[in-house]
Amino acid sequence: MRDYKVVVLGAGGVGKSSVTVQFVQGVYVESYDPTIEDSYRKQIEIDGRACDLEILDTAGVAQFTAMRELYIKSGKGFLLVYSVTDENSLKELLALREQVLRIKDSDNVPMVLIGNKCDLKDDRVLSIEDGIKVSQDWGCVPFYETSAMYKTNVDESFIDVVRQIMRKEAAINAEKKQQKQLQKQNALENSGVNASENTKDINDDTDKSAKTSRNKQNSSNGEFEDGKEKSGSKCCVIM
Ligand SMILES: Nc1nc2c(ncn2[C@@H]2O[C@H](COP(=O)(O)OP(=O)(O)OP(=O)(O)O)[C@@H](O)[C@H]2O)c(=O)[nH]1
Ligand SMILES: [Mg+2]
């Protein structure tokens, strides 16, 4: 079973714990108890693959955020949560995302943008378009409006980020395999032993293994086709 470490980030009180507990335990927590740090495990099957999710529900309240750098380092995917009833919570996410990209030293980090509390229609101050705009500014990061209270788009958000982690890992593994083949090919060429025959064999092998790897990806999650990645995540998914 593969391990997937997902980190839930966002300002205080936006509903990180409520969303997480809804996903893991299927219950809604009405009371507000600021989190210091909570870790959950959940096993689910995604696209036919058994996944062991470790979910880190983090602190949003400033005095508890000292550990942030450490858990961003160890996380593979991120749920960035704001509340549609709190304008500042979306602003805070901009800096949080920058921090994630800086610590990960990459622009390609599995993440979803979540606008929570979408059931609170009278208290809403941020529109769906506000969320879509941020998602687009972030290079079309998948965006979901969620309600932890009604379990709206909660499972979908977690599954989306795990799928992104899977796709990233598959791409890294394919690249590693290709590099190994190239090294093997170079070593044979340098040894000068019947180089042209061997190279032909290896090229054939590379072709076959690339095809097999593509086929595997097609049959398991349909994310790759003809060696090109299909966009599995919609740019913006809203309730
Ligand atoms: N109506 C409504 N209330 C919500 C929703 N999600 C969370 N809440 C409420 O908002 C309050 C804060 O929720 P938490 O999940 O504790 O927020 P948090 O982001 O974990 O807060 P910190 O741990 O302090 O960072 C609680 O009273 C929740 O019941 C939602 O989707 N709809
Ligand atoms: Mg919390």
Can you describe what's shown?
This protein is an alpha/beta fold and 239 residues long. The protein is 46% helix and 21% strand. It contains six helices and nine strands; from the N terminus they run βαββαβαβαβααβββ. The strands form two sheets. A seven-stranded mixed sheet has the order 2-3-1-4-5-6-9, with helices on both faces. Strands 7-8 form a two-stranded antiparallel ribbon. A hairpin with a 2-residue loop joins β7 (224-225) and β8 (228-229). α5 runs antiparallel to α6. The protein is elongated and about 75 Å long. Residues 206-234 have low confidence and may be disordered. The structure holds guanosine-5'-triphosphate and magnesium ion. Guanosine-5'-triphosphate is lined by residues 10, 12-18, 29-32, 34-35, 59-61, 116-117, 119-120, 147-149.
What share of the residues does DSSP label as strand, in percent?
Answer: 15-25%
Structural class: alpha/beta
Q: What is the 3D shape?
A: elongated
> What is the tally of beta strands?
9
Alpha carbon gap, first and last residue: 32 Å
